[in-house]
Amino acid sequence: MCGIAGLFQPELNEAKGTAYIQHAVKALARRGPDGNGVFAATGIALGHTRLAVIDTSDAAAQPFGDSSGRYTIVFNGEIFNYRELREQLITQGHTFRTGSDTEVLLTLYISQGEKMLRTLNGFFAFAIWDNEQQELFIARDRYGEKPLYISQQPGAFYFASELKGLLAMGIPKELDYVTLSLYLHLNYVPPGNWSMFKNVQPLAPGTFMRIGTNLQPVHSTWYTLPVTESNVLYADAKTELAALTEAAVQRRLVSDVPLGAFLSGGVDSSVVAALAAKHTSKLHTFSIGFADEPLFDETAHARQTAKHIGTDHTVFMLRNADLLEHLEETLDYLDEPFADSSALAVSILSRKTRDHITVALSGDGADELFAGYNKHRATWLAMYGGLRSQLVKAGNPLWQMLPASRNSKSGNRIRQLRRFAEGMQLDADERYWRWAGYTSVHAAAAMLVNDTQNESDQRKDELLHHLTKNASINSQLYCDMQLVLGGDMLVKVDRMSMCHGLEVRSPFLDHELVDFVMQLPSAYKIDATQQKKILKETFAALLPAETFARRKQGFEVPLLHWFRNELRSTIYTLLAPERIKAQGIFRPEKVTELLRQLDSASPGDAVARVWALVVFQHWWNKYMN
User: How far apart are CA 479 and CA 624, in angstroms?
Assistant: First the structure.
């Protein structure tokens, strides 16, 4: 795992290219604590920061060139089937001077061109420079597990693993107000042809680009999620799922450095850890606990699972003060506003885990594949809940009168009833969008001084185009794989783990497994009695029965408590009316209205919305002010 950056500017001399790329490499240093390197020639500069995982020798350091000197690669990620691919290349007459997957990747490209992308099982973002053709080739993995941002400026093309790498090379910074509007709805920047900066965007997952000396990128898609449903029998589907999941876990055990697994005590991480334990001698597992938040602490369940599957388990027990202590570091690492508050807990877990291992397996992706979120249960009830759902919808006036808050079980239940009743009054695509965020898209846009409503609606329609055509649950999972996984979950895991030099691998995102599950009928995933139905029933014999019986929990951070106590002065300073007015981005009266709701007996989702503003202000002060 690493950080990569590059600058393609045909008139650039080698010395200036080296200077630019060294700034980018320095900015990305935490992604690769084991070393760094630079390649520069007339018109091109490539940089790399290294987290050594496979072939840790200096011979495999990057930028890495072929023996002819024509091709040079910078690569972030892992190719889990590189050994099989290497053997195939050897039978074709190719020779290798390292044991790295980097050299296999470069050799595959030289041999097959972009066709080789479909042979890769792994996660990656890479760039290959062809000195003879004066052409740059960049590509990204199927689901966007590894990030890659690009920016085309007059006379130059830039790329980097994170925005901070681009900023270090001096690209202009201009706020994209439409992106900000979407961020205020979702609490993260949705994936698409945009970022929080104008003229900067991520390379889309499953795509590649060729850029020649005319600097006009030729963009192509090499992978898309399947959309058709299969007619496989349920019993056969369970058998196939078991085989594909175990194979996915086994592939991700390849490593030349210490490897372990996250174990929260929930279904997803428990399945991954149990399968990994079958193929690893005394697997080391890790979980994080919250001493001050027993409602959200799952460490007892994690310990039970660890004992059942025989892992060497470590629990990091935190108090709220520990979370607060790490808050500044977490916010400071973000180079784009990201207000999923659980990022703080993931950051601390990653930091502490890195003291023991370099690679961790996780259960990420299963919720999106198998309908594991609360909104999936709500969607099922909206479609098939009958009288029960209609009664909740009719009760909306009552839910609006009762106090709603995430801070208690009863208050959170009222909050959920409100959201469900509101969603029941909307069409399927609008309902999905409402439940994906913390307010209506119109309320989010109304926070801004600039009118972004029309453009925000256009981007929303682009994000939901598949759902608009087909309102099935599988269509919503398709949207989740692109929107929620791509914009929230994978961003959180990548940034918070790489901030501490930890590589996280997600077996549920093995493309063979994803392609299979995406085509299963939705009834195999969710029905009247349970979510993740086929996943639970496939691995029922592998884990304690209690693992499958408990309600889903997530990392929760005590934001409301902080807002009313330790962070109160900070919030009221960052969001003071005179400061907001001088900034000229948000409507002061709307911010004041949110703060009043925050202090009321019924804060509802104002907590998350205020957090989005706080995170944005921290980002603005660092990068734009």
Answer: 32
Round to whole Å and give the CA distance between 520 and 522. 6
What is the 8-class DSSP label of residue 310?
A: T
Q: What is the pLDDT of residues 541-550, one digit of tens each?
A: 999 888 887 7
Q: How far apart are CA 399 and CA 28, in angstroms?
A: 48
Q: Which amino acid type is present at position 166?
A: L
Question: Looking at the whole model, is its pTM more than 0.85?
Answer: yes
Active site residue 2: yes
Sheet holding 207-211, edge to edge: 64-65, 71-79, 122-130, 135-140, 207-211, 218-221
- The C-alpha angle 575, 576, 581, rounded to 5 degrees, equals 95
β pairing state of 2-8 and 156-160: antiparallel
Return d(Cα 284, Cα 168) in angstroms, integer. Answer: 38
What are residue 391's DSSP bridge partners? none
Q: In the prediction, which pLDDT does 420 show? A: 84
Distance separating alpha carbons of residues 484 and 478, to the nearest angstrom: 10
The number of CA neighbours under 13 Å toward the Cβ of 415 is 22
Structure tokens at 514: 């994803």
Tally the C-alpha atoms within 13 A of residue 508's C-alpha that lie toward its C-beta: 23
What secondary structure does DSSP assign to 336-353, as a single string? Answer: S----TTHHHHHHHHHHH
pLDDT in tens, 358-371: 999 999 999 999 99
Catalytic residue (choose from 1, 2, 467, 567): 2
In Å, the largest CA–CA distance within the chain is 74
User: Nearest-5° angle of CA 144, CA 50, CA 74?
Assistant: 60
Residues paired with 201 in a beta bridge:
150
What the block records as the tokens of 176 is: 């994209």
Q: What pLDDT was estimated at residue 471?
A: 75
Angle at 555 between CA 554 and CA 557, to 5 degrees: 130
Q: Tell me if 157 sits within 8 A of 135, measured CB to CB.
A: no
pLDDT at 553: 63
Sequence-ordered list of residues with C-beta below 8 angstroms from that of 470, at least 6 positions apart, any chain: none
The list of the chain residues with pLDDT below 70 reads: 1, 295-296, 407, 468-470, 551-556
CB 375 within 8 A of CB 520: no
Residue 588: predicted pLDDT: 96
